[in-house]
Design brief:
349 residues; alpha/beta; 2 domains; six-stranded parallel beta sheet
Length: 349
């Protein structure tokens, strides 16, 4: 049984991790410890999920608990130091919350860590493993809608909160591909102001991604994104993706799905919460697969997540400089502007 722990209990995602371990949904792992700096939050989380080993210092937890997997649920600015501490403690794997980083400086530092460290890291885009979305991803991969021509993806929250989910969704239906060019517009600076979670992004963003071979994608994040449930004001529930091929289409939202093939349409609904627990469990089990077999690389591994993050940063630069950005094969463009969030705050203000 793999020994697992959580660092950071803020927000709902830490509960999502813990819930995935409940009732045997994660068959090969046990949640044995938790760490967070606030003693009251630590006690409440430990009691809620029945975790006896509780620490206010994650380094102490790393030294004491002989861990196999750690879920890193912290603001982006402390991620790299936790990665390094895990490597120093001999912890073999991490699942880290999105967004992976915020701007080019921390992106480059994490990329350098990935180049030199043996720690296996995946980013927690659990939507990839939601049962319904997995079925649609397989349908498209098996040619069920013919060759993909257009992807339309969006999220009701901004790029830092949900944009990486949306970029990863595009990648899930266009595996092993990165855009050749991006062109974007952005507006609004409320999301660029200091906030406790340090998730910085423009309030509304629109981007086109050109993959070559007549394949394009449209990405909308924030207040300009379409609403999945028109009468529900909660911004976080409006993630969606539509994929259109030569012979049909698929459409997934947090609450529904639709498939069009050969003139016939099938559709249905699902319960997001139930799908999410199963998706979180499957993501974690895929980490155990990777621990057991180096060839079973996690689909959300750090390398591909860094590529998606570089695409996101190029989208920001495109919006800031009002230019089409041409990318290399890894998603990076020619220039990588330091202090990008500050520049966006001024440029969009």
């Amino acid at each position: 049984m793999y020994r697992c722990a959580i660092v950071g209990v803020g927000g709902n995602r830490a509960n999502g991790h813990a819930d995935a371990y409940a009732n045997g949904r994660i068959e090969r792992g046990q949640l044995v410890a938790v760490s967070t700096r606030n003693p009251e939050k630590l006690a409440a989380f430990g009691e809620r999920h029945g975790i006896a080993a509780r620490y206010t210092d994650y380094r102490e937890m790393f030294a004491a608990e002989r861990l196999d997997l750690v879920h890193v649920n912290t603001p982006p600015d402390v991620r790299l130091e936790i990665f390094q501490a895990a490597a120093d403690a001999g912890i073999p794997s991490l699942v880290v919350e999105k967004p992976l980083a915020i701007q080019w400086e921390d992106y480059r530092a994490i990329a350098e860590f990935a180049r030199t460290s043996p720690v296996k890291i995946a980013v927690n885009h659990q939507l990839h493993f939601h049962p319904r979305r997995l079925a649609l991803q397989r349908l498209v991969a098996e040619g069920g809608i013919g060759s993909v021509r257009f992807v339309d993806a969006s999220a009701g929250l901004n790029m830092a909160f949900q944009g990486t989910h949306t970029l990863q969704a595009i990648r899930a239906f266009l595996p092993d591909r990165t855009p050749q060019t991006v062109f974007a517009q952005a507006t609004g600076t409320d999301g660029l102001q200091p906030n406790p979670r340090q998730h910085y992004a423009p309030d509304a963003l629109l981007a086109t991604l050109d993959y070559g071979d007549a394949i394009t994608a449209l990405l909308r994040c924030g207040s300009n994104a379409p609403r999945v449930l028109a009468d529900d004001p909660r911004a976080h529930i409006h993630k969606r993706i539509g994929v259109y091929g030569e012979k049909g289409y698929v459409h997934w939202t947090m609450w529904s799905w639709e498939v069009g093939q050969a003139g016939r349409v099938e559709r249905g609904s699902h319960e997001y919460g139930a799908e999410d627990v199963l998706g979180q469990a499957a993501l974690t089990e895929a980490m155990f697969d990777w621990l057991e077999d180096d060839r079973a690389v996690h689909p959300l591994n750090l390398d591909v997540s860094l590529q998606d993050f570089a695409v996101m940063l190029n989208i920001y630069e495109s919006a800031l400089h009002r230019e089409i950005r041409r990318l290399d094969g890894g998603g990076s463009g020619a220039s990588q502007q330091a202090g990008l969030m500050a520049a966006l705050r001024v440029g969009l203000g």
